[in-house]
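REQUEST ID: PR-0412
SUBMITTED BY: lab tech R.K.
PRIORITY: routine
TASK: structure prediction, single protein chain
INPUT:
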Amino acid sequence: MNAERIDKILRPFQKFIHEESSSGIVLLVCTVIALILSNSPLSDIYHDIWSLEFSIGFAGYEVAESLHDWINDGLMAMFFFVVGLELKREIIGGELSNPRNALLPLAAALGGMLLPALIYIIFNYDSPGVVGWGIPMATDIAFALAVLSILGNRVPYAARIFLTTLAIADDLGAVLVIAINYSSDISIANLAIGAGFLGVLLTANYLGVRSTILYGILGIGGLWLAFLLSGVHATVAGVLAALAIPARTKIKEASFATHLRQYVTEFESVRPNDVSILEPGQVHAIEKIKSLTRSADTPLQRLEHTLRPVALFVVMPIFALANAGISLKEISMDDLLTPVTMGVFFGLLLGKVLGIFGMSWLFVKLKWSNLPEGVDFRTILGLGMVGGIGFTMSLFITTLAFGTTTDHAIEAKIGILAASVLAGLLGWMFLRRGN
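STATUS: complete
OUTPUT:
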């Protein structure tokens, strides 16, 4: 009875976590909290918390960073690890496994990255702010899917797949931009150590090692730490580690079903007792079922299933709390019209729409690809608007390009928040009226 009551209490929370729009709602709430705190009498405390320094070390070696940096270098590496798992799954058996189906969203993602970057560069040409050209390139998948979820069946399912594939490709593009443009003072020695750990991970995969604990130790204690010390941003290590995770089952589906029926029969054949504990034969049958189940799934999907809620409902909200706080009291009209603000704003709001729609139109008209079933160009235009929500990744790249409290960082954050809000509203209104 107690278990039933607990299940009844937990059921709404479990349903909330599995809703597509839920992570976007939590992210929005944390963003609003960050904005309120940074503009309240508690603003000094709010900023001081993220400046607290923590260190880890052993045998005379120590890594010391602020809480803000640990979030951006450590927790965000976990987020990118989940992105890498998702990417590998899509390549093996998802939308990216069929080149013809993947071509259109990949092309749209490319257009949605290049044009925003170009617009930003035009606004900031020959100025120190040009280093932030990667800021308007990314689409926030959590917020974008939240907008589509609110629209419900007004948006075809194929449109959701299109936007999801586009956003995953977008994230991969962001990783490449971070690795190439926002890494500095490269340590070849540490990079070589990281490459060695990656080689060990790939070898373990090739040999059929399926222990997620082993991959965790080698991935965090080896690959991630080596990249953190190398100058190449540590989030890149998250994606590389994910690509090394095994994606094969140990037994075939038919064999799994046969053995499962056998073990269930074995469990049922044991005469039950009248107490709460199980008979030894039942326990033995359950252990066989557990072992069989672990052999039937893949480490990649097991890790993704476990870590995805952590990334969406823990990592991303903490990141928003640490990075979305902007003091609006000190913002003047001049701050709204700076090249950085305008470059980010128009890069996301205009560049994303034209890049996604324009590249999609070009590929369809040249007959290089086809529109997804039930999706027309009007829907693609609406998805391009929603793609202009660049919140999370744009904020992350802002901290890499400009730090956290510089004038350029504040200007970029203003552009990100304004463009993301407008893109979400315009996309929602356009798709709602059009379908």
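NOTES: The mean pLDDT is 82.
REVIEWED BY: pending
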